[in-house]
Prior knowledge:
This protein is 19% helix and 39% strand. By secondary structure, it is of the alpha+beta class.
Amino acid sequence: MHAKGIHSHLVTRMPTPNADASAALSDLSSSLAAAVARAAESVVAIHARRRIPSSGILWRDDVVVSASHTVKRDGDVPVVLPNGERVNATVAGRDAAADLVALRLETKAAAAPRASGDSLRVGSLVLAVGRPGQSATASFGIISAIRDDWRAWDGTRLGRVARLDLNVYDGFSGGALVDASGALLGVNNSALARGAPLALSADAVDRVLAELLERGHVRRPFLGISAQPVMLAPADGDDQPALLITSVAADSAAQRAGLLVGDVLRAAAGRKLGHPADLLDALTQSRAGEPVQLDVLRGGTPTSVTVTPADRRTGA
Length: 316
């Protein structure tokens, strides 16, 4: 009798489902499904590698953007549009630093709707949408971090990148990162950070794409030197950062300008140098074919050297 009373007491105190909470979850589920459906209308399948296709985004009505490492061929590339139509595209350009490839379509289709620039925020709910086959697939999570000054493996400044707390499955690289309404935030990529899911922001992609469509590659000015940071100890006692040249490549812009191993670079185009990335930034700000003045310390004597950076092309 006593045990039965306890059982009855427990039963009467069991929590009941909250109708409001259930309705909210149902609304969220429906909203996310609608967001995926909206985004999928601008995500294509690219057949340019073995095994499964890769994903791409209709960035413009006749241009698809994808991750360069997933498109293993140049020339004609078969693309399957969201409506199932199979069309040809040609590679308009690649950039290995940003791991982006631009494909020019032989036809036109609706470009992806864009989210506003301030929608890329830490903690925002986001969806990764890909098309590694006939149907679209999706993954759900949040933006866990934002880097406004992300640099590629070669030191190139790429701009804003989002670190994602979600799964990026096979075939997702090159697909769309979208907000809860299905509007485009950026391009998903699992290679920029050695497997960690990232997304290059739409603004950063736009800058790369503009150069790819104009010249087929992104201008990457370089001198042909290796350098390491050093600290100078001038007479006034305040240490100053600089770069020590440790090697000069044969027939390079640096060699033609007369730079030598052992030269110390203190500034480029008026910009102080304390890290190799500082030199890359200074060169990038110069116009193509424009000479850059370097402040050099050679054998303890200040001098200046004028050098015209070369344009290094990077492939996939």
